Amino acid sequence: NGMTDYHYTPHAEDDHTHNTEPPCDVCPRNGVCVPHVQCPAHVRDGAQNPQCHLEGTQHIGVCCSTGRRHAAESVRKFRSSVNAEDVKEVHDQSQQRLDNLLVRADVLKDLNYATVNTSDPSYGHHLSVMTYDSRAQTLGRGALLNLFAAQEFKARNVITDEDLELEFTDHADGPFCPPQPLCPNKPIPYKKVGGECNNQKNLDWGAVNTGYERLLPPDYSDGIWAIRNSITGLPLPSARTVSSALILEGNRPSGTLNLMFMQFGQFITHDISTGVVVSLDNGDAISCCFGNGKLIPVQLQHWACAPIVVDKKDIFYGQFGQQCLNFVRTQLAPRSDCTVGYAKQMNGVTHYTDLSHLYGSIEEKILELRAPGGLLKTFKDFGRDLPPLTKRKECLNMHDGAACFESGDNHGNQIISLTVLQTIWTREHNRIARALSKINPTWEDIKIFFETRRILQAVYQHIIYNEYLPLLLGPRMMGMFGLRSTPGYSSSYDPNVNPSLTVEFASAAMRFGHSTVDDQLTVLSPQHKGIYESIFIPEVMFQPSRLRLKPFLDRFLIGMSWQPMQSVDPLVSESLSRYMFHGGSPFGLDLAAINIQRGRDYGVRSYNAYRKLIGMKPFKHFHQFAPSAAQRLSSVYASPEDIDLWVGGLLEEPVEGGVVGPTFANIIADQFSRLKAGDRYFYDNAPDVNPGAFTPSQLKEIKKVTLSRIICDNSDGIELFLHSPNAFLRSDLKRNEPVPCDSPTIPVMDLSRFKEN
Ligand code: HEM
Ligand SMILES: [Ca+2]
């Protein structure tokens, strides 16, 4: 339909053509054969990383002796240590800079213009990216202190650009050391709420409030935190300029996948990644734009401001006189070994797939959410269980009967389809907890709660790896990265693997999902072949009150199963690119521009760098893209070397049997392979590594569960009696026609296997 020519066709022959030698059978010098994306050193000048066969597969990888380190081993030079007096001076100076900064920021909180009004579209954004964990702020400040020290060490030539880039700065400690987690001596069967103590050597790997890792060293223009420039040395085009030229509005429904596939992607995202954006001391949101849509001059801005400049003649914002889109940078996290270095962004949730968005990432939260009987608290609304009402002011529109709900991550109201999933999973917890307490009448509440959590986390991981990822990544990637779920125990745990999220995944690849969102949510009656309601999604962002209407949940779940999601391409619904969180305002935010700016905030390299990383040729000329994309790209970017990763990735044709192009697919596959191999508690790890391992017969039951089972068991049973066996595929597909909930194609897990002997 004409839209596909925004893609270019990835050429299979592109893969690895730069190396003509036959792949090695055994890697030399203790090298391990890994997919290209997992060996950053192979793209460095002069790197010697022969190609090889990935273990047990036909796929080609690269011999890597440097693990996930950025450098080839020979690059490392011995460095003398730093004079103690110099260090003290640097530390004192950093402290002074921090003090000054905080004083200046404190003044801003009393100035009206510098904070976001609750009626401003930016307020919904603030609700999506904030944390209520006070420790995050202390750590963020410590990280800033160390960042200043890095700048000062660099100015004094104690550390070089290369040291910074390759993280060879361990001879230069910063003034701030984060506290180390306290871990029990004896392994406990349950994941810690905050994710710490999972890895036994690196206690804080994957924990809440720790930094993102990266696939490639950052591209900061000062090597430390300043936003990347064009390779011409000039600033990059504004993120809004790029968005308005390249990210278009359009309708291209997926032929196979439904809205649940879209929504489950965001659900997983909220579990594993929330870049905590800097806010004022009192928790208020920072504004980098005046109320009239003009830019606040740099000297009056908060230090974390990086507002997106909007052209006066902007095709959409122009008519409203908006020349500024608010953008605040993500808070930083200190390195756990106290060293200084380039900026690392802070993840405000546990990196692991542990349902932290249901249970919380901090102790206080899980205590707040627990109810007697090992249950999760609920709000009983005319006999139906909904998540508990929140005490925070979170509904963007407080009409009569308006309701916003509590969740483990505080962002569960962002869009009603997400709140629906929060509801289903809350109910599934309570369903299992009730069953367990019948089967094991002697168990105390706390045991019921944590055993239920352990089972639910397992079921959820199974759905991700067994149902969601294969459709997202296609069979080739699943095989290459060892992601496939197999019967029985798996043996993929590797204590050297850091599970932490990468900036490339969080700021670009996983944001493919923004292209899959449809403007409208349809509430369907398939029996009557009719539509009850079609909802414009900005009306249900932070306004999930419809959930209180009795038949809504069932009808909505049916609709999500039938309604196609949008395909992954450079088309993004205007409800995200123009009206996001608009509330009562005639315009909202542009999430596409925010994604682009976030990538720059995180120092993500340009698209070409990641093509090289995954073993494809970079694009030298714009005309290598499809004609329409080429023209648009060259109208905004000075060079193909400047293209933002999120934009370049969306232009790719999907991998076979998957949804995203090769660059995103590799970044995402890498992430989920590390979330598996780096999680000691991964649900199908055997008892030799996993202190919370299941018995073989319990595991067998867990591996029966599908998302359709969870939907069937936790809908209201008012109108939903049938469901498609595969919850992510459209219900109008031939082999996915809805079947009764008790049909054997939607298998049931036998909880009697969880009776304690
Ligand atoms: C349903 C409507 C959705 C809305 C309103 C929405 C909104 C947002 C917002 C406001 C942010 C923060 C942007 C920033 O400041 O950097 C964000 C981040 C993100 N979104 Fe979405 N999103 C939606 C759907 C999705 C879907 C379907 C996916 C994936 C399949 C997804 C993946 C992500 C990821 C990976 C991030 C980065 C999270 C982080 O690390 O902080 N989103 N989204
Ligand atoms: Ca988590």
TrEMBL record:
UniProtKB keywords: Glycoprotein, Heme, Iron, Metal-binding, Oxidoreductase, Peroxidase, Secreted, Signal
Protein name per UniProt: Chorion peroxidase
Gene3D superfamilies: Haem peroxidase domain superfamily, animal type (1.10.640.10)
Membrane-crossing residue ranges in chain numbering: none
GO cellular component annotations of the record: extracellular region
InterPro entries: Haem_peroxidase_animal, Haem_peroxidase_sf, Haem_peroxidase_sf_animal
Coiled coil regions, renumbered to chain: none
Domain of life: Eukaryota
Positions bound to heme b: 514
GO molecular function terms listed in the Swiss-Prot or TrEMBL record: heme binding; metal ion binding; peroxidase activity
Originating species: Euphydryas editha
